[in-house]
Amino acid sequence: MAVETVRKPYVRQRSAWWWTKNPRYVLFQFRELSSVFVVLYAFLVLWQLWALRGGSDAYYAFLVMWYSRPMMALNAVILAFAILHSVTWFALTAKVPLFRIKGRPPPAALVIGANLAIWVALSLLIVKLLYGGF
Amino acid sequence: MADRGTKMIKLRISRYRPERSGEPFDQEFTIPYRDDMVVLDALNYIKDHIDPTLTYRWSCRMGICGSCGANVDGTPKLTCALYLRDLKKRPVLIEPLANFAVLKDLVVDIEPFMEKLEAAKPYIIRKDERPIERGEYRQTPEELELYRQQSLCINCMLCYSACPVYGHDEKFLGPAASALALRYELDSRDQGSEERLAAVATEHGIWQCTFVGECSVVCPKHVDPAGAIQQLKALAATRLMKAMLLPLAPR
Predict the structure, then answer these.
(1) Considering the entire predicted model, what is its pTM?
(2) Are residues A25 and A64 located together in one domain of the fold?
(3) What is the pLDDT of residues A109-118, one digit of tens each?
(4) Is residue A90 part of a domain?
(5) Stretch 201-230 of chain B: residues touching chain A, C-beta under 8 Å
(6) Helix, strand, coil abundance in chain A, percent, nearest 5
C-alpha cells in the first residue's frame, strides 16, 4: 500500500568557518597547514643545492638572501610549523600499541615520551654534526 | 507551574517542521529548572507542558540506548547525561546532531549511519563453522580484554556529528563503524580478518580519516574511535607490507 509521506530530509550546509568553532578543530587545521610549510622548506633546500651548483659567487648571493630578515622570519615560521607537525605526530604514536607489557598496551606517556626523547636526541646529534661542540 | 523563587532557564531549540516550513528555525522556551535536571528533562518538560509537537528521540534516559544525542551549545552530547547546571551559556542552544539530514526538530536521518555499520561487517566470520553440539566458541578474560573497549559503543552517533571529515564527505565510513570493525578484528573467535580489513581499508574507509581526534573526545563510552582507526591503519599497512615482502607466507 502506498503511504503518503511529508518526509523532507533537510540537509544543512556547513559554514566555511566550521573549524573556528572548536579549539581542537583549529589545531587540526594548523597541523594540516603545516605540511605546506614542510614542503616549502624542501623547495628551499633544493634552491640551496641549485645555488651551490652555480659556484661560489652564486652560493654567496644565496647566503646573503638566506640570512636576510624576511628569510629568517620565514624560517622561524617553518620551524614552528615543523615542531607542531612533529609533536602532534608523536602524540599519535601511543594510539597504536605495537607490543604489550603483561598483556596491556604500554602507557601512553611512556610511548610518547620515548619517541620525543629519541627525536630530540637525534636532532641534537644532527646539530652537533653540522656546527660541532655545544 | 513555577512558584516564586523557582529558577528559570532559557533554551533555544532548533525546530524543523517539514509539513509547514521549508527551513529550520529557532524557538525559545523559558522553563523552571532544578539543579538535578538534565537537558533531556528540559525537553520532556517542554513537550509535556508547553509544546507537545516538539520532536526528539530518547529511550533509556540512563546513557546506554544511544538515542538522545543532540548538539548542545555546538557540542555533540547525550542529552540524558548532561546537567543543565553545567552549561554556562544562556540561552542553552539545542540543535540536531550535525552532519546528518534533519527529519523533524531534533530527529535526524540515521539511515546513512546504519549503512556504514553494515559495511564494516560487524559480526564473527568463521571459515570453519563448528556444529552446535560442540558448544560455544570459548574465550579467556584476557582475549575479551583485547576488544572490550571497542565493544562498548552504543551507536549514539555523537562521533559522526563531531567528525569534520564525515561532515565534508558522507561517503566516509566514519568513527563508530571503524571502531566496530576493529572490535571484530581483535576477537579471538573471528576468522574473517582479511575480508573485513579489505572492506574498511579503502579510500572512503579508514584511509580517509585525517585524525582530527574529536570523535574520541565526544564519545560518552570512551571507545576511542580515533585510536581504533589508527590501529586499523597499522594493521592494514603491516599486512600489505607482509604480502609484498613475503608473498608465499601464510597471512
Answers:
(1) 0.89
(2) yes
(3) 898 999 999 9
(4) no
(5) 210-214, 217, 224, 226-227, 230
(6) 70, 0, 25
